[in-house]
Amino acid sequence: MANHLLEVKGVNIFHGDAQAVWDVSFHVDEQKIVALVGANGAGKSTILNAISSIIRPSGGDILFSGNSTVRLKPEEVVAMGISQVPEGRRIFSCLTVLENLELGAYPANKRPYLKESMKRALSVFPVLESRMGQAAGTLSGGEQQMLAIARALMARPTLLMLDEPSLGLAPIFVSRVFDTIQALNKEGLTILLVEQNVFQAMEIADYAFVLQTGRLKMEGTTEELRGNPEFQHAFLGIMG
Ligand SMILES: Nc1ncnc2c1ncn2[C@@H]1O[C@H](COP(=O)(O)OP(=O)(O)OP(=O)(O)O)[C@@H](O)[C@H]1O
Ligand SMILES: [Mg+2]
Questions:
Q1: Which of 7, 11, 20, 179 lies at a C-alpha separation of 20 to 30 Å from 43?
Q2: What are the CA-CA distances from residue 83 to residues 18, 136, 193 (Å)?
Q3: Taking the model in full, what pTM does it have?
Q4: pLDDT category, 239, cuts 50, 70, 90?
Q5: Residue list, CB under 5 A from ion ligand 2
Q6: How confident is the model at residue 88 (pLDDT cuts 50, 70, 90)?
Q7: Which helix (H) or strand (E) element contains residue 98?
Q8: Domain boundaries, given as residue ranges, for the chain
């Protein structure tokens, strides 16, 4: 069996009594960009939150480098090498840019690398350097998204999960975010990307999984899916 970096195996996830994810399995291989796409409410964020141990699946398993994560606390998952850039960024608006970045390095095994990680995060987003003392809430939307990604990088992840990173951004920032994701991947970071902007996600992804109302509906290389009439119709606005 192939050795996947992340393997989600038959997970069922509930919000209270309501089941949001049904027997979903997918995997992310090392150094790839994998897209997870689907309409509003399909369960994409629910799955990322389960991988981050913010929600516990009621069945199935999640393996990272072969080790189950489902009983771990969120900070233990970050310590293992999985960082999530949450939907809506969730930066701490009243804290400074510097404080937000420092918080990204909170797991005990990451703190010794704080200076090095900061240098690296700022080399990815140099604009943040001139904003370090500023309250994060005063940044533009595009800069806040950069800060959210930079904060996730502060934990030195092996797998970076991004939940709708381009949502609500001006077009110039959208292309910058996608360029950055691609550049990070070229440097060796594995990416799990949730995007509404399927067209652009397919431009940079190697492989994609498609969710429909909590179930896995299709999967394939981006090339295969681009040539699939059902996928074209549902996501690329191409009428069949
Ligand atoms: N905290 C919650 N409590 C109850 N139900 C929830 C909660 N979060 C999500 N849901 C429900 O779970 C389902 C999946 O939601 P989820 O947010 O994972 O979808 P999504 O694919 O990320 O959608 P979007 O594209 O809008 O972000 C939806 O039916 C949603 O209403
Ligand atoms: Mg979502």
A1: 179
A2: 27, 20, 12
A3: 0.95
A4: low
A5: 44-45, 87
A6: confident
A7: helix 97-104
A8: 87-151
